[in-house]
Each structure stands twice: as structure tokens, then as C-alpha cells.
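User: Sequence in, structure out. Go.
Assistant: Echoing your sequence, followed by the C-alpha cells.
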Amino acid sequence: MTHRLTTDDVLAITDLKARYFRYVDDKRWDQLPELFTDDAHFGGFAFDSSGTTADFVSALSAFLNDTHSEHRGTMPRLRMVDANTVRAVWTMSDYVTWEPDSRVYKNVPIEGMYGIRGYGLYEEEYLRTPAGWRISFSRLVRTRIDPLVGTPAPDPGYELNTQDTTWLDG
């Protein structure tokens, strides 16, 4: 039997991934675990991503502590594996900044480094659960990382984070 993705499935998985990026960038660590199965697996991240979903969220929050991040996922390719499993590849980019000279790049300090602009792919698998689609596997495949070096742009002097983070919740 051939299984086909429905429009509702595509929309639900796309929303799931959008919430992942939003929760990461807003540092909504308490809500992030709800996007994964309890036994999800992770790989390819710049920090130890072994262990449970709770371990992953803890390591991710520690890694992004004291940073500002903007993540984007685009052009998903989705394929049904069976009636309750979908695999996807998402093109991704991120822009992550931190206090200058407070981190190293691949274990090498770079003078004046204040962040990265990164590119790559997310390879993921989703499972249909009673609560809806959840991420059961997530691997980040980096294809390029550009260190940001020099003098960061000055603070513009106005509040940038004015969006209501609960706008679509409910």
C-alpha cells in the first residue's frame, strides 16, 4: 500500500518545525520538549546531543545561553515512510551572536569573533502520535559556517524584540 501525505499532514509538520525555530530563538526551553517524542535521537549539533530529549534541550539551552539567534528552515522535502512516519530534509540558515571573544570556533580562538552565520540541512523524521506529529530524529548537517569577526553593529537604541510570543498559541 502506498501512503501519501495529506495537506493536513504537511501543514502540521511545517508548523511543528516552525515552532521548533521559534522556541529556540525565543529560548522557550520549557515548551521545546513537547515537539519531540520522548525517545527522540539527535546528531550533528555543536554540543553533545546524546541522551534523552530532556538532555538535548538542556544541552541546547546551555549552548545558546547568552546568545542571540535567528534560525530559518526553508524548502522542506517530505516523504512518507509509512502511515505514521515521515522523513524530511530542510534547508537551514542561522545567525548567532554573542559577546565578542567569549567563544571559540572549532576549538580555535578567533580574535574579535562575535558570532556565526551558518548554513546547512536538517534531516528529520516525524512520528504521528496521539498528540499529533512529533520529531523523533533530528540531525543538523552543516555545509558552511562563516565566523563573524570585527566590531558588531552598535545597538540601535530601540527595542527589537516587541513581538508577542504567544500570538499563535492557544
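User: And one key feature?
Assistant: Residues 115 and 158 are 21 Å apart (CA to CA).
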